[in-house]
Amino acid sequence: MTYKISKKKILITGATGQIGSFLIERLVNENAEIFAVGRNKKELREIQPFVKSKKIKFLECNITNEKSIKKKSKFLNDIDFFIHLSSGYRFDSSNSMTSNHHTIEHDLKGILFASSVSIYGKPEYLPVDEDCSLNPNHFYGIGKFGAEKILQSFALKNKIPLTILRIAAVVGERDRSNQIIPICVNKSLKNETINVNEKSSRDYIHIFDLIEFLIKAIKKNKNDILNIGSGEKISAEKIIKKIIKLSNSKSEITYSKKTVGYDLICDISKAVKNLHYKPKYSIEKGILDEINWYKNSQFL
Question: How far is Cα 97 from Cα 142, in angstroms, rounded to an integer?
């Protein structure tokens, strides 16, 4: 049975980010009632037209601060579905990790959490599937690991369907991250030298494909853990060469003597089967979209 999005009250954290802004556009088109959570109402970015036109409600809130959450608690009544895109979480005074989900103690019909493939750390085997051991080795991955565990406990206790999507690196427009592609796109557009300091290969997914997976996961609304990526690998060196070529850059490449990193490629067969969708967009299109977006933005 498909979960109907139309007229549902949906709370989204991380609403002003790359994924959040594209997802909100799609959900507005699906006639959902959106409550978008972000830290700063002065940085609405792409969702500003929706806020101004009152198609969505924006809640300025720092989800790592409990007082900030409680101030917005009146807006959380009767939320139907919770989409947690933010990487925000906090530690309480006893050093136990907690999150903002406990504030939503109403009749939730479903939760979707945007986790990350970084939760696997250096994987035991490739391609990595959902049964692979979880060994996050940096703070971002550890945070996602903790959030998964908290949400699983909360969802189980309250009998709420929880979908966890472990997402690979995202490529495409509106990418303001400090990852390899936006960094190198900026350098290439300025014809600056680009250094290769890792030999590892990674999995990337186009933002348009990711949004399709997200929408299908929301409509499915089942307890599940799924890897979301392209299922294809590409090395850092090849990415940089593609960026230079596609941007017609004069940037030169230098190579570090010491390299870092490890390969991480996803097995996405479970997601393809359960959500009935296969990625359609290439890494080249994602890079080109990102190049064109940066050319037309103020971020250079």
Answer: 11
